[in-house]
Input
Amino acid sequence: MSTRNSRSELEKTAVQLFRKLGTRTVLFHQAAAQALGLFPTDLKSADILNEAGPMTAGELGKKTGLSTGSVTALVDRLEKAGYVAREKDPNDRRRVVIVPLTASKKHIKDLFRPLSESTMDLCREYTEEELELIFSFVGKAADIMEEELERLKQ
Output
């Protein structure tokens, strides 16, 4: 097999593995949401809030692609479950921001702990240099996914 074919096969394998990982990730988060009594979109929206910090419902709608009405219902559910709070924006009292509260929820940490521990165990199989390369690759792949997400939203 020539280097070109070998490289091409490796690239195809990368695409297949990322598809597999993406599918397993979606299925895992669906199961996690169900275990928490949430819809998958609710759980991922709470995750977006944890990652990005407090934001308005409109900003959350832009990030998720959900309509205003859907975001309102989603925030209502998350607030009722104790995963977010609506607070007045300290910089503009006319605005309300959605504040994540999930980081302090022990049962969420407990739910994700085995996955975190398994991931850390996997990391221990690689050298620091290998991990830096892996993280660079995965980070760039995440950037590509973000770009493709934005493209699909247009």
Q: What stands out?
A: The chain has six helices and two strands. The mean pLDDT is 92.
